[in-house]
Amino acid sequence: MHRNGVYSESYIVNMIGFINTKNDSIYQNVEIVTVFYDTGSFSSVTEQVRTVGYTDEVARGHYDANKENPIMGMYPTVLNPKSRGEILLRSKDPKAKPLIYPHYFSDEKGEDLETFLEAIRFVEQLVATEEFRKHEPQLVRFEIPICDGLAFRSDDYWRCAIKQMTSTIYHPVGTCAMGPENDGKAVVDPRLRLYGVKNVRVVDASIMPTIISAHTNAPSMMIGHKAGR
Ligand SMILES: Cc1cc2nc3c(=O)[nH]c(=O)nc-3n(C[C@H](O)[C@H](O)[C@H](O)COP(=O)(O)OP(=O)(O)OC[C@H]3O[C@@H](n4cnc5c(N)ncnc54)[C@H](O)[C@@H]3O)c2cc1C
């Protein structure tokens, strides 16, 4: 009500932007998740390493930059990646954890990497706008040893940094894809019944044939709601 206090902001993701880096459609192909850390508020380095999968150096880069300045982390997400992950059984033991291979940037034409690069160029342009310049922003260079030999902010530098820093946003789908029986890859029919097995339905995010261009929680609830009716 008063726009202050603990519940007045999310403290995690303060701003989200959906853009189309190719300007070829009204639909977004990239989401930019923005996290604002007030001076000295970046949580512990180990926490970031554990949850986001950063290297120690990159987490430390956030931490150091935030010691005396607020920082704004702008994290692009490629919404409809062409690369496909894979999930396999480890063994015949049903309790054994599966093998999960995300296979980031494995698409043949390398389109995912280029879309990421376009997203970073968009962020650079955004930071160069008058509104942003009022706040005297500085682009922080994290320590990414493998990219050291490349000119900072060149295309090749960003491609290298993207490959080193990419992580998950925890929206896996598609392992029990819904589709027509003759599709070859479909696991459940449009009423979510498992093909070939009677009286079993799968009702969760896994039935989305491909990833949607947004977050998956509300759509998962919608799938549950529809199946339950
Ligand atoms: C860290 C994280 C952050 C996320 N943030 C967001 C966000 O901000 N916004 C958003 O839209 N989405 C977010 N998501 C994604 C969202 O949570 C998922 O897409 C959604 O929960 C998927 O729903 P689901 O029903 O398919 O699976 P789940 O929610 O994973 O439900 C599966 C359920 O099955 C149970 N289960 C597993 N095995 C068995 C078994 N053998 N027997 C009985 N029960 C079992 C599990 O305990 C669990 O309760 C996030 C996910 C994670 C992991």
From TrEMBL:
InterPro entries, per the entry: FAD/NAD-bd_sf (IPR036188), GMC_OxRdtase (IPR012132), GMC_OxRtase_C (IPR007867)
GO molecular function, one term: flavin adenine dinucleotide binding
SUPFAM superfamilies hit by this protein: FAD-linked reductases, C-terminal domain (SSF54373), FAD/NAD(P)-binding domain (SSF51905)
Domain Glucose-methanol-choline oxidoreductase C-terminal: 81-224
PANTHER family attached to this UniProt entry: CHOLINE DEHYDROGENASE, MITOCHONDRIAL (PTHR11552:SF147), GLUCOSE-METHANOL-CHOLINE GMC OXIDOREDUCTASE (PTHR11552)
Family to which this protein belongs: Belongs to the GMC oxidoreductase family.
Official protein name in the record: Glucose-methanol-choline oxidoreductase C-terminal domain-containing protein
Lineage, top ranks: Eukaryota, Metazoa, Ecdysozoa, Arthropoda, Hexapoda
